[in-house]
Amino acid sequence: MSTIAGRTALVTGGGSGIGLGTAALLANDGAVVTICGRTESKLVEACATIGNGARYIVADITDEVAVAAAVAFAAEPSSRLDIVFANAGGSLHMGGLADAEAEAFRATLELNVTGTFLTIKHACKQMASQTPSGGSIIANSSGAGAFPHRWLPAYGAAKAGIDMLCKYAAEEWGMHGIRVNTVQPGIVADELMAPITAGGNLLEDYLEQMPISRVGEVDDIANAVRFFAGPESSWITGVNLNVDGGHHLRRGANYAKLFEA
């Protein structure tokens, strides 16, 4: 029997990509999975793909009321939440700092940092109140938050904020048996990155900076999340884990290459 069989899990941004792949893996290992996101039709399709009784709730992670409702829904009917993958995020700005619009910069921080903060806040309150207390929270960060990727300042700053936020949460909530870690994916072949992984100057730049020179798969990230979710990592908290083929050993990608001929 799987070591997470019967445990309850919430995956934000679970309608596609890494979120969907991770939700499917957790469900296949026996977890009772709830996914959330902003688009109901996408969530319905994702639950059909996941199977294993997966459920969904529509929620915008920047809306605190919606996040609280998603956490409460995921904990039903057992009044328990064991695993949270705070995956939802993205970037609304690409380019140099001098050309950045404040609105896009703020929106990127709001989506990533505030959205992850709200998810952690309400998940920790639930996990601390249940008997026995405890649980595992994993946030989706990025290598762009650990080392500079040219032309991704808003996204990189936001992901760095997630990494530090999770360290603070790990320190504060460890007394309740709650572990908080992040994964820092490199370039992964999912819907979001398809325009890059299809080929071109930016992909070549990525591959040149990776000792294990291949594009990552969704399962590469999902398996790392699964490790943090289970008892195999029961003495690990406050860690930011690179899952990137060694990209972090070299320099970040240069997104200016998207515009080169």
CATH superfamily: NAD(P)-binding Rossmann-like Domain
Rg to the nearest angstrom? 18 Å
Instruction: State the major sheet.
Output: 7 strands, parallel
Strand runs, count: 7
Q: What is the overall silhouette?
A: globular
Oligomer: single chain
Distance between the termini: 53 Å
- Count of the separate structural domains: 1
- Overall structural class, as computed from helix and strand content, comes to alpha/beta
The number of helical runs is 8
**Average of per-residue pLDDT values:** 97
Any guess at the CATH architecture? 3-Layer(aba) Sandwich
| CATH level 1 class label | Alpha Beta
- Residue share in helices? 40-55%
Provide the spatial order of strands within the biggest beta sheet.
3-2-1-4-5-6-7
Briefly summarize what is shown.
The protein has 261 residues and is an alpha/beta fold.
Molecular structure report:
This protein is 41% helix and 14% strand. It is of the alpha/beta class. It has one domain: Rossmann fold. The protein is globular.
For this entry, give a set of tags.
about 260 residues; single chain; about 15% strand; Rossmann fold; alpha/beta
List the helices and strands and how they pair.
Elements: E1 8-12, H1 17-28, E2 32-37, H2 40-50, E3 55-58, H3 64-74, E4 83-86, H4 102-129, E5 135-140, H5 153-173, E6 178-185, H6 194-197, H7 201-208, H8 218-229, E7 240-243
Parallel strand pairs: 1-2, 1-4, 2-3, 4-5, 5-6, 6-7
Helix pairs in contact: 1-8, 3-4, 4-5
